[in-house]
Design goal:
By secondary structure, the protein is α/β, with parallel strands linked by helices. The protein folds into 2 domains: 45 residues, no CATH class; 181 residues, TIM Barrel, CATH 3.20.20. 46% of the residues lie in helices and 12% in strands. The protein is built from 9 helices and 8 strands. Strands 1, 2, 3, 6, 7 and 8 form a 6-stranded parallel β-sheet that branches. Strand 6, helix 8 and strand 7 form a beta-alpha-beta unit. The radius of gyration is 21 Å and the shape is globular. The model has no long low-confidence stretch (mean pLDDT 89).
């Protein structure tokens, strides 16, 4: 279900409830239940990027035994260790970079690109208020990051990942006007909350046999160790690390 189809369904249900209520054929409990159901659907759609509820999202691979590596929240000093592991295994990755982080670490941003990886937009500030921002602020966060990333790297930005994977009607409306492909994931490592490398690895390992887009964070030191194990496992089990650019058409800039 998409947001537009949900709106149509909700209008139909509202009219039906109003009619049945007027006829005395439905109780307030049913009305409250329908409202709570609507709130639950909206909440799920907002928090689950791969649901495609508010905007089309590329979140899953179709071919078997493939993995796309993605990293959020850099560039960061720890990104250098991540790059070292990727270079060792000749593995491509996509880094969703925060604009202000790129301004602080332009050399790392350019190393990401020079080593053959993709840079995507992860907003200018990665604000904790992202899901509550007005459309104007949402547009600024995305466009300002694109401007800074392109200026610093000399490369066009084609891909975007919203902070926390959160979308809503305002964010979706802005994204539909921008020449960016929205990239999600179907395997979330949770490396920002699971700090023990072995526990993190045990969470990821059983899920690697499914073709996935995995979400890591290049800001986390323990992710370096888990990335090494992930790449070694993929190599020994015939899982190919593929580039995002090989799996999705690059949007053209207006």
């Amino acid at each position: 279900m998409t947001y537009n189809s949900f709106k149509i369904l909700f209008v139909i249900l509202t009219l039906a409830i109003a009619f049945l209520g007027w006829q005395g054929a439905i109780s307030w409990l049913w009305i409250i239940g329908i409202i709570l159901f609507g709130v639950a659907i909206l909440s799920y759609g907002s928090a689950t990027l791969q649901s495609n509820f508010f905007t089309p999202t590329f979140s899953k691979l179709k071919e078997p035994n493939e993995l796309i590596l993605t990293f959020d929240d850099g560039p960061h000093p720890n990104t250098l260790a991540i790059l070292e592991v990727l270079k060792k295994h000749q593995a491509p990755a996509t880094f969703f970079c925060i604009g202000k982080q790129a301004q602080q670490h332009p050399d790392i941003l350019n190393q990401i690109i020079s080593e053959g990886h993709i840079v995507g937009n992860h907003t200018q500030n990665h604000s904790n208020k992202w899901g509550w921002m007005r459309s104007k602020a949402v547009r600024y966060e995305i466009e300002e990051a694109t401007k800074n990333l392109e200026s610093l790297s000399g490369k066009p930005i084609h891909f975007f990942r919203p902070p926390f994977g959160v979308t809503n009607p305002r964010i979706g409306k802005v994204l539909r006007t921008l020449p960016l492909k929205i990239i999600g994931w179907d395997l979330r490592s949770l490396d920002t909350t699971i700090k023990n490398p072995e526990k993190l690895w045990q969470r990821i390992k059983p899920k690697l046999n499914n073709s996935s887009i995995i979400l890591f964070h290049d800001t986390q030191e323990h992710t370096v160790e888990v990335l090494e194990k992930t790449l070694e496992y993929c190599q020994s089990h015939g899982i190919k690390i593929v580039s995002l650019a090989d799996k999705i058409e690059t949007p053209s800039h207006a």
